[in-house]
Write a structure and sequence with these properties.
By secondary structure, the chain is an all-beta fold. It has one domain: TolB, C-terminal domain (Neuraminidase), CATH 2.120.10. It contains one helix and 13 strands, in the order E-E-E-E-E-E-E-E-E-E-E-E-E-H. The strands form four sheets. The protein has a four-stranded antiparallel β-sheet, with no helix packed on it. The longest helix has 4 residues. The termini are far apart.
């Protein structure tokens, strides 16, 4: 990210300072992007204004040239800060929406959202850590927030439970 511009380094090699960097898109209103995750050739972004997909109609990994040459990112969920994003490789993208802290699963093929959990300790403007282990369990790290003794927790959502979601 540079000046809220989504950048791509084609074929990075040894951190060459003279390497070409390609701008492939920008989130509307120049808002901050907190988290990124690929699902196939589409790039999902959690930003301070919502949940976006770059390359909705094209392969973002092939983008070159100036900003937004892959088109304007598509807003999938607005009106909230998205602080964490991860893809499971099975056609689902998980995201954490800020205040009051809700974990959602986005079904890419159906274009639908399912609420997985709510009441998470999420501080707006901070990134929530999301990741999958080798068994398909989803791990979520909450931030410690001042004056809340239960902040900073680590949660796990079992793969068997995630598989039962609509």
């Amino acid at each position: 990210m540079k000046n809220n511009n989504l950048l791509r380094i084609p074929q990075p090699t040894n951190f060459d300072p003279n390497q070409n960097v390609i701008s492939v898109g920008v989130v509307p209103s120049a808002r901050s992007i907190f988290a990124l995750a690929f699902n196939g050739s589409q790039l999902y972004a959690g930003a301070s204004t919502g949940f976006y997909v770059f390359g909705a109609n094209s392969d973002i990994t092939q983008c070159s040239g100036n900003a937004n040459n892959c088109g304007t990112p598509k807003l999938l969920m607005g009106g909230t800060s998205i602080n964490g994003v991860v893809a499971d490789g099975l056609g689902h993208v998980y995201l954490v929406a800020g205040n009051p802290g809700t974990l959602y699963r986005y079904n890419v093929s159906a274009g639908t959202f399912t609420q997985v959990d709510s009441g998470l300790i999420i501080e707006l403007g901070h990134t929530s850590t999301l990741g999958f282990d080798k068994d398909g369990n989803l791990w979520l790290g909450e931030q410690p927030v001042a004056d809340l003794p239960n902040g900073g927790r680590l949660r796990v959502y079992l793969a068997t439970d995630l598989a039962r979601l609509p």
